[in-house]
Design brief:
Elements (H helix, E strand, L loop, with lengths): L1 H17 L4 H20 L5 H9 L2 H20 L5 H20 L8 H14 L10 H5 L8 H20 L15 H22 L3 E3 L9 H32 L2 H14 L10 H21 L2 H18 E3 L1
Antiparallel strand pairs: 1-2
Helix pairs in contact: 1-2, 2-4, 2-8, 4-5, 4-8, 5-6, 5-8, 6-8, 6-10, 8-10, 9-12, 9-13, 10-11, 10-13, 11-12, 12-13
């Protein structure tokens, strides 16, 4: 995981330098990004959360939350974008989920606080539409020109979710790991192929997508694919499969109910994409959620479902145009 983190961080540095970034603001942004990414990847190594919890106990979640807030302060002070209101907002983003998780310390997984925490984190990433066009992400991360706002918000929220559910709540069966298991290749390929056989004709029939390969963009395929996997597919699979589907299955005592409910909620979470309300997106995303959830159930890993998720998004990005 440390090696993967080093490669991804170095790639980001080289690309940023090539784009002309440098100086104190760049160094502060890189420091915050490297920390958030380090936590995101390090927890995918086997036994990391167990070691932290055994050494620091329940306070390990609060320590990680404190470190996340300090990383934001480094970014804000280093880029000269610090504002008291922003600092309070980030403190609330960190402290409120931790407080909810701590209040459910004696309850089994699937308590109402767990679902409230997931909802709070998701709304931080994708807030409800508003008539002013105001974006929390762009407001919190104004440098450089808001271009990294979504990535920073996603990484921040993943870090908070790790502190809440893997350290404080100690939820089992999340599958937050990067590895390869028996028959995973079959499950991943089958999930992607069957979904494609359903989604492509359906998407064209409801006039949502149109076949339009972007051959001129193939040179950017490796960078776009890595970005989709780690900053879209991985966080969403962690939230909707590793946490939501997992906890819904526990609360309802039914794997099937948790799977279907999480898939439908995953679909509805995309209702604001490309215009509100986008029911065509909801339909296709719900169907996709069924296949992602099936892959997670079969493998027990969000890495496997994230690979299917990323393959779908990458194929859509390069082979189809949204109508």
């Amino acid at each position: 995981m440390l090696g993967l983190w080093a490669v991804l961080t170095l790639t980001g540095v080289l690309y940023s330098v090539w784009q002309g970034y440098g100086g104190r603001a760049f160094a502060a942004t890189l420091t915050a990004f490297a920390f958030f990414l380090l936590v995101t990847l390090l927890f995918a190594a086997r036994g990391v959360e167990d070691r932290l919890a055994s050494r620091f106990g329940a306070s390990s979640g609060h320590l990680l939350g404190t470190a996340v807030f300090l990383a934001y302060l480094i970014y804000a002070l280093g880029t000269n974008t610090f504002a008291f209101t922003r600092a309070v907002a980030v403190a609330a983003l960190v402290l409120l989920p931790l407080a909810l998780a701590a209040s459910a310390a004696r309850k089994p997984p699937g308590a109402w606080q767990d679902f409230a925490t997931i909802l709070f984190i998701w709304l931080a990433v994708k807030p409800l539409p508003n008539p002013w066009g105001w974006s929390l992400s762009h407001w919190l991360w104004p440098y450089p020109g808001g271009r990294l706002s979504y990535i920073f918000t996603v990484l921040l929220c993943v870090n908070i979710a790790l502190a809440c559910f893997l350290l404080l709540r100690r939820v089992n069966g999340v599958g937050y790991s990067i590895g390869w298991g028996h028959h995973w290749g079959f499950f991943i390929a089958a999930s992607f192929i069957v979904f494609a056989c359903i989604a492509i004709p359906l998407g064209q029939a409801i006039h949502f997508i149109q076949f339009d390969p972007q051959w001129s963009q193939l040179k950017s395929l490796p960078f776009v694919s890595v970005g989709i996997l780690f900053f879209t597919a991985w966080p969403e699979e962690f939230l909707f499969r590793g946490l939501l589907q997992n906890l819904l299955s526990r609360a309802s005592q039914s794997d099937l109910a948790g799977w279907w409910t999480a898939s439908i909620l995953f679909g509805f979470s995309h209702i604001t994409n490309m215009g509100f309300p986008n029911w065509r997106y909801v339909i296709l995303a719900s169907i996709a959620g069924f296949f992602y959830g099936w892959t997670w159930r079969k493998t027990g890993s969000i890495f496997a479902s994230a690979l299917v998720h990323a393959a779908v998004d990458i194929s859509w990005h390069f082979l189809f145009r949204t109508v």
